[in-house]
Structures are given as structure tokens and as C-alpha cells.
Design goal:
With about 90 residues, the protein is mainly alpha-helical. The protein has one domain: Serine Threonine Protein Phosphatase 5, Tetratricopeptide repeat (Alpha Horseshoe). It has six helices and no strands. It has helices at about 5-15, 20-30, 35-50, 50-65, 70-85, 85-90.
């Protein structure tokens, strides 16, 4: 993945243009299914949608492909957030 593409994706996700970003990512994944960065960005997209289970799945896929993927940190941070907001433990 090129740096310009990553910057464009980041911009699209931050601006809420999730459908455009998702379409681009799906196309890119069909062309290059072994690019861990694409899965990292799919995780970010799903996290923005509050679809945390899917975000974690995408981050895990990226980490399996590349141990040093930024998905490792994103996965850890999302897990920390989910543990903090565990309804059963904290909102009794």
C-alpha cells in the first residue's frame, strides 16, 4: 500500500466517508489479498462504525500476516476500551 493511499483512507474514515473507503478497500483486497495494511485499515473502518468484533477480526488478520503491524497496537487499545466498558463488571 502506498503512503498516499493510506493518507486518503485515513481522511475518508475521519470524514465519515466509510462507504467510499470500504469500496476502495474491497477492490484493493481483491488485487492484493496479502497486504496486511489493508486489513489494518479495514479494522479502522469497522472500529469507526462501532463494529468492534469485525474490527478485532481484521486487526488479528493483519497481525497474523505481519507481527509488527500497527494493527497490534490498535487491537490492544480496542481491547482495553472494551474491557473498561464491560457492562457486567463496571455498570452493576
Amino acid at each position: 500500500m502506498k503512503e498516499e493511499e493510506a493518507l486518503w483512507l485515513k481522511s475518508q474514515i475521519r470524514q465519515g466517508r466509510l462507504q467510499e473507503a470500504e469500496q476502495w478497500l474491497h477492490k484493493a483486497l481483491t488485487e492484493c489479498p496479502a497486504d496486511d495494511q489493508l486489513y489494518f485499515w479495514m479494522g479502522n473502518l469497522e472500529r469507526q462504525r462501532n463494529n468492534f468484533p469485525r474490527a478485532l477480526e481484521h486487526y488479528a488478520t493483519a497481525m497474523e500476516m505481519n507481527e509488527e503491524s500497527p494493527a497490534r497496537e490498535a487491537h490492544g487499545m480496542l481491547m482495553d476500551i472494551l474491557r473498561f466498558y464491560d457492562v457486567d463488571r463496571y455498570n452493576v
